[in-house]
Amino acid sequence: MASSSKLKYLSLGVLVLQTTSLVLTMRYSRTLKEEGPQYLASSAVVSAEVLKIITCTVLVFKDNNYSLRGMKQLLKEQIVNKPLETLKLAVPAGIYTLQNNLLYVALSNLDAATYQVTYQLKILTTAIFSVTMLGRRLGCHQWLSLLLLMTGVALVQWPTTSGEESEEKILSSSSQFVGLMAVLTACVSSGFAGVYFEKILKETKQSVWLRNIQLGLFSFVFGFIGMMVYDIQRVRESGIFQGYNRITWTVVTLQALGGLVVAVVIKYADNILKGFAASLSIILSTLISYFLLKDFTPTGLFFIGAVLVIAATFIYGYKPGNSATVKV
């Protein structure tokens, strides 16, 4: 029991570090000005899925004592011979692929502060789907912690007067609406797909890695189709890997790693705790931006919000003896 608890919080800690690195690296890669075309977001999404499939295949190979015959038999029995079970993963795979592309749309049409604040609504949607789909009962203190978390994150990411007004002038109202709809849709899809995948993982005896191979295969197909539909002209002109450099491959690697870390977190914790880890990573990203990148000046609201988020994390993890529960 103690080892399981340690593994749960270790997974959350790794997720915080991975998410922080991904956000900072991705932001840098999308703003980096170099000669030649910029890399395609759709291509990066597909590349991350390929890397995740390869990594999971290696892990399955390891779990089968490095037996190639045993791994082939396992993949045939669990994937090929169980088409209906495999097709269940098509739902979250399609939603995850849509979500990843929507986030690029959102970041292209909204300023960073608005995006980060709005995207935290995924924590609320995850909680709602956890209660309605998994029948999970949340204590009153957990609902309070969700409220504190959202309030804290909103205060941390509250836009300041310096620089924000000029940035908003650049963005047209129609562009802001597109970005807002994209991030709101991503919040709902993130909550639903995460809980749906959690339900599948906890109802099956298959390993997390095997499930991620199935998930990755569907995500690759959906992502590749999307890339061919929306970026076919640019792909014809400069290829799928146009604009790739070391930073791009770092983003792809972090995305692939993030998918596996999330799978472990879902297996040993739940999606709401995953949301808390993501929120903490935003605070850490802001601190790094201030002390290292020096492109952010913290305000009093930032410190108040940081305290609320940290307090909410501890409140959610607290387990009273006989707490009242609320079910929607």
What does this structure look like?
The chain has 15 helices and 2 strands. The longest helix is centred in the N-terminal third of the chain and has 30 residues, at 2-31. It has a two-stranded antiparallel sheet. It has helices at residues 2-31, 41-63, 68-80, 83-87, 90-109, 112-119, 121-134, 140-156, 164-170, 173-202, 208-230, 232-238, 246-268, 271-293, 300-317; strands at 138-139, 325-326. It is mainly α. The chain is globular and about 60 Å long. The two termini are 29 Å apart. It is a multi-pass membrane protein. The chain crosses the membrane at residues 39-61, 140-158, 178-197, 209-229, 249-269, 276-293, 299-318. One of its GO terms (molecular function) is pyrimidine nucleotide-sugar transmembrane transporter activity.
Shape descriptor reads globular
First and last CA, distance = 29 Å
The multimeric state of the shown protein is single chain
Helix content: over 70%
Mean pLDDT reading: 78
H/E element order:
HHHHHHHEHHHHHHHHE
- Measured on Cα atoms, how large is the radius of gyration? 20 Å
Low-confidence stretches: 166-171, 322-328
Q: How is the largest sheet built, in terms of strand order?
A: 1-2
User: How many DSSP E strands?
Assistant: 2
Number of helices: 15
Structural class: mainly alpha
The largest sheet, given as strand count, sense and whether it forms a barrel, is: 2 strands, antiparallel
Strand-residue proportion: under 5%
Organism: Salarias fasciatus (Jewelled blenny)
Subcellular location: Golgi apparatus membrane
GO cellular component, one term: Golgi membrane
Family: Belongs to the nucleotide-sugar transporter family. SLC35A subfamily.
